[in-house]
Amino acid sequence: MSAVSEGVLIVAALLRQEILRNRRKKRCWIKKWIERRGVLGASNNLCVELQIENEDDFKNMFRVNRTQFYYLLDKIGSSIQRQNTTMRNDIPARTKLEIALKYLATGDSFGTLSQLFRVPRCTISTFLVEVLEAIYSVLEDFIKVPRSEEEWNQIIRGFFIRWNFPNCFGAIDGKHINVKYPPGTESDFFNYKSTYSIVLLACVDHDYCFTYIDVGAKGRNSDGGIFNNCTLKKAIEENTINLPSNAVLVGDEAFPLKPYLMKPYPRRNDLSREQKIYNYRLCRCRRIVENAFGVLTSRFRIFEKPITTSIDKVDVIVKTSCALHNWLRKTSPASYTPPGFIDEECQRSGLRLGPWRTNASGGAFENITSQNNRNSTREAIRIRDNYCHYFNNDGAVPWQDSAIF
């Protein structure tokens, strides 16, 4: 046999050995450090320690206390737990819920969560949406549009008592939620700030809770188009939700002036004292939706930076975070939004800003742009002028003059 032939045989033998070695490596089903999840993973160590030794740190980690955590686990555990197989055991439902809540609370990457809980990143990506959808289905009743006139009147009374704004059934606003570059559809999500986003349009009641959310409009859509195409607008105009007569929303310049939607007088005009007072009173009332978004961002740090999951996961992330916000605001307001956390008015020192404004860095949230709408109806203009007259006469509050100068 020639030297060349022998060399070929030697190379072939070495290649065969390498192939067999790689096959043996692939037979490793789980990495060794992940196999030690039950002994060294956070679920059976750190999380248990925090429950026993310091519940405040547990709540800071997951944004819920121990009782609330196990309430959710009891409600969704059976729907997110899968059977063990001969090849490997399924991730416990408790661990899945811990990972999902920590992801919303901190915005940690899948890599960080994987190392902390000793669960593969690909596995987290697989079950995350399922767990979030299960949470939303349990808490869905905490984020629904009122359907009776009495429910609306309760909100209207709340706005009048707290914000001195009559016949107001909600404050509306929209935010661009920045997302990662979506391949293949980038032009649809490219917005006016040269980032990629979807839009969250929300209506908030007098107590900082979302009564309506519309998630998923593409960032390139005009702001007027987003409102015009939302289901809330149709429901208001067709009155399928039993609104009391003459009830109004309050919004900023981004929204069209409608008989049921009040916005400020345009600031580009030379405003009279009366119009400035109207703008102050409307913005004072509308500040509640700013605070709701601010608390949401501060409590769920997933919104502090652009969300890097795929677009289809962003929708359920936003919906579940809003549902958790409402649930916590209604069931444990003192701990979720303690005194001083939200903007407060002090007649001596004026507006005292809540700390969420300094804690929230913007990140995934961007304001929607103003809409140049010159087609307001005479009826809408008349209603706004009536509010202006009311705020400057019978409905005046003692501090409003000092607030505009």
UniProtKB/TrEMBL annotation:
<dbReference type="InterPro" id="IPR027806">
    <property type="entry name" value="HARBI1_dom"/>
</dbReference>
<dbReference type="GO" id="GO:0004518">
    <property type="term" value="F:nuclease activity"/>
</dbReference>
<dbReference type="GO" id="GO:0005634">
    <property type="term" value="C:nucleus"/>
</dbReference>
<keyword id="KW-0378">Hydrolase</keyword>
<keyword id="KW-0539">Nucleus</keyword>
<dbReference type="Pfam" id="PF13359">
    <property type="entry name" value="DDE_Tnp_4"/>
</dbReference>
<keyword id="KW-0540">Nuclease</keyword>
<feature type="domain" description="DDE Tnp4">
    <location>
        <begin position="172"/>
        <end position="326"/>
    </location>
</feature>
<protein>
    <recommendedName>
        <fullName>DDE Tnp4 domain-containing protein</fullName>
    </recommendedName>
</protein>
<dbReference type="GO" id="GO:0046872">
    <property type="term" value="F:metal ion binding"/>
</dbReference>
<comment type="similarity">
    <text>Belongs to the HARBI1 family.</text>
</comment>
<dbReference type="InterPro" id="IPR045249">
    <property type="entry name" value="HARBI1-like"/>
</dbReference>
<keyword id="KW-0479">Metal-binding</keyword>
<dbReference type="GO" id="GO:0016787">
    <property type="term" value="F:hydrolase activity"/>
</dbReference>
